[in-house]
Write a structure and sequence with these properties.
15 helices; two-stranded antiparallel ribbon; mainly alpha
């Protein structure tokens, strides 16, 4: 007696007509994404990279050319490296004193900014007191008001307080102008920390200041680095407040020096590009040195614990 296995007709037909699927190469998966998607993303990133870096490279090329070559070969690389342009730009523009002024103003403003924004952000994120939501709303509203709108009252207030032609005075104003955004950023970092840390510290007898200084500050270092980088770029490159408050050439910062240099030596593009390169290098160096903290700061406060 023989046994014959019979499959239902639909199942047997399905087995008979089954063919291996043919997939294109761009449909292959890499880490959950197709190659086509990855190629599209990397092409966009390459375009953004070229758009970001080429102006810097163009200025660098111009700083290493002669005056005639800048006009004859404006877009291409230099035929020779004229390092003397940097020496002449430093001498003619008086860049040394202005770099010192910018460094003093930026360092003072950042110190005041971090010292004021950190406890304010901690109070708005951890302490329950009457009017906290109103203060937070005012902080957010202050972020939407540009300094140019307050130019006249700002100048009159600085004049009455004796802050005109003062490096400390403009540092105070820079710190106040960047304070709302810094409070808003640091508050998100404090909110991402678990409350159990403070509860355990209070059970051990720690005060509010000890909790902030010994426990919270080491954990929000990415946020403080983020605030420092944003503030450094804003203050170092500021022209409006410096033009409004610094009339004495002895206390003027780099942006004012560049404008004065261009007005006096506008035809010497190679020296102007050299001066631009000198003033841009500190920003690039600070960002390169703090890029890990910057990336950590962009993501660390994004998720609330």
């Amino acid at each position: 007696m023989s046994l014959t296995l019979r499959f239902p007709l639909p199942f047997a037909a399905g087995r008979k007509n089954r063919r291996p699927s043919i997939r294109s190469w761009w449909q292959d998966r890499v880490d959950g994404r197709s190659l086509g998607e990855l190629i599209f993303v990397y092409v966009l990133l390459a375009l953004v990279l070229v758009e970001t870096l080429y102006p810097l490279v163009w200025v660098l090329f111009g700083s290493l050319k002669t005056k005639e070559e800048v006009i004859a070969n404006i877009w291409g690389p230099p035929s020779g490296l004229v390092w003397q342009n940097y020496v002449e730009a430093w001498r003619v523009s008086g860049m040394g004193a202005r770099i010192v002024n910018s460094a003093v103003v930026t360092a003072t403003a950042l110190a005041l900014l971090v010292a004021a924004a950190t406890p304010a952000a901690y109070a708005l994120s951890r302490l329950a007191f009457r009017g906290r939501n109103l203060i937070l709303a005012l902080v957010v509203a202050a972020m939407l008001v540009p300094p140019q709108v307050m130019a006249i009252p700002l100048f009159m207030t600085a004049r009455d307080l004796g802050l005109i032609n003062s490096r400390l005075g403009i540092a105070l104003i820079h710190a106040a102008a960047n304070l709302p955004l810094s409070i808003f950023i640091l508050r998100s970092f404090f909110l991402s920390l678990p409350m159990e840390l403070e509860d355990a510290a209070r059970m051990d007898g720690a005060s509010r200041f000890q909790i902030l200084w010994l426990i919270m500050l080491p954990l929000v270092r990415p946020g403080m680095a983020l605030v420092t980088i944003f503030g450094f770029i804003e203050i170092w490159n500021d022209f409006f407040l410096a033009f409004l408050l610094l009339r004495d050439p002895a206390v003027q910062t780099i942006p004012l020096g560049l404008v004065a240099f261009f007005q006096q030596y506008g035809s010497m593009w190679n020296l102007y590009f050299a001066a631009l390169t000198i003033t841009t290098l500190p920003v690039i160096v600070v960002f390169v040195l703090m890029q890990r903290q910057f990336i950590a700061g962009l993501t660390a406060g994004a998720v609330k614990a």
